[in-house]
Amino acid sequence: MAKVFIVAEHRQGAIRDATYELVTLARELESKFALEPAAVVIGHGVRPFAEVLSRHVNETIMVENEALADFRYETYAAVLRDIIMKETPLVVLCPQSAFGMELFPRLSAETGRPCATDCVQVEMDGPSLVVVRSIYNGKINSRLAFASSGGYLITVRAGSYAPAAEADKAGTIRDYPCPAFGEPFKTEFLGYREAAAGTVDISQAPFLLSIGRGIKDTENIPKAEELAAKLGAVLSCSRPVVDKKWLGKERQVGTSGRTVKPKLYLAMGISGAFQHLAGIKGSGTFIAVNRDPKAPIFRAADYGVVEDMFKIMDALKEQIGT
Ligand SMILES: Cc1cc2nc3c(=O)[nH]c(=O)nc-3n(C[C@H](O)[C@H](O)[C@H](O)COP(=O)(O)OP(=O)(O)OC[C@H]3O[C@@H](n4cnc5c(N)ncnc54)[C@H](O)[C@@H]3O)c2cc1C
Questions:
Q1: Which of 39, 161, 214, 216 satisfies CB 3.0 to 4.6 Å to 24 for a cystine?
Q2: Mutate to test the pocket of ligand 1, among 290, 299, 314 (most ligand atoms within 8 A of CB)
């Protein structure tokens, strides 16, 4: 039976959510196309992660070594190269994250296996693998079929699949020998630095009013701040608002900002780029205001208002009163 491997991503003592999304995808490939899922966990002190994953898949391959304590391309790629060449999985999945983006394209060149990055859907069409990639800020889905190969490397965009719920399989954990590394390394792990915490913690707010480039000018920021205060919401934003220094980085929602889980997310003047939407996938009710009826954000929102955001801001202020 052909296999699909999930390369687990973990950081600072926890498995990243994106790994559980890959579990869902691998299970889908199992039920629809009879691929057998297995997990690969690489690192130091990673047995607890392997134990968690063994409750999701029949087999978890664990490579445990002190030299793998911190992620560096040379060591992780050496391990994965060895596993891929010996175990010959048909598909290897990894999150489209800094981790996956550094590992997979180079690994593809080194193993000769084709790679597609940032996929939002993965399936088989007969013997060949087909992936969907969302391009031009989510406006177009491009469907790619690979020429036949012994194996494929795929990175998957966060939020494309729902994370797998807790499971209770009794899968096995296989201790895989760590291969020798080609030292000296070209890179050095200097340390892990968490982004500085700002004055607000948008990740804990139950109600976020989020503004995007549609706010147009720094002069309009006080209007949004006033509305947020009246609504009892915390003000957050998309990346261009931070890039223009209209609001602080601690208020940015998205892949390079914060992941938020408010009960209510009210987005105004935000187009709905995947980097933004990936940060709100755990939100409750999602309302979008945008004057462009074709804005991608409407495909993700629960409720959409096609209107000038300034009109809606004024109307809300008027409704609430002083
Ligand atoms: C590596 C990387 C990481 C990234 N990380 C993030 C991230 O963490 N978070 C993030 O947000 N982005 C991130 N981005 C940027 C992302 O790709 C988009 O460019 C960004 O989200 C767009 O922001 P926006 O929707 O505010 O602006 P735009 O895409 O310019 O959209 C503005 C929207 O406002 C609407 N609008 C304009 N005027 C009005 C009005 N008066 N009333 C109503 N609607 C109006 C327009 O119709 C448009 O849809 C990242 C990009 C890269 C490459």
A1: 161
A2: 290
**Pocket flag, ligand 1, residue 134 (CB < 6 Å):** no
Instruction: Check if 312 has its Cβ closer than 6 Å to any atom of ligand 1.
Output: no
Domains and CATH numbers, the chain: 3-175 (3.40.50.620), 202-320 (3.40.50.1220)
Ligand 1 centroid, distance to 292 Cα (angstroms): 13
Q: What is the mean pLDDT of the chain?
A: 93
Report yes or no on whether pTM surpasses 0.85: no
pLDDT digits (tens, 9 = 90+) for 273-297: 988 998 897 789 999 999 999 999 9
At 269, give phi and psi (nearest 5°).
70, 30
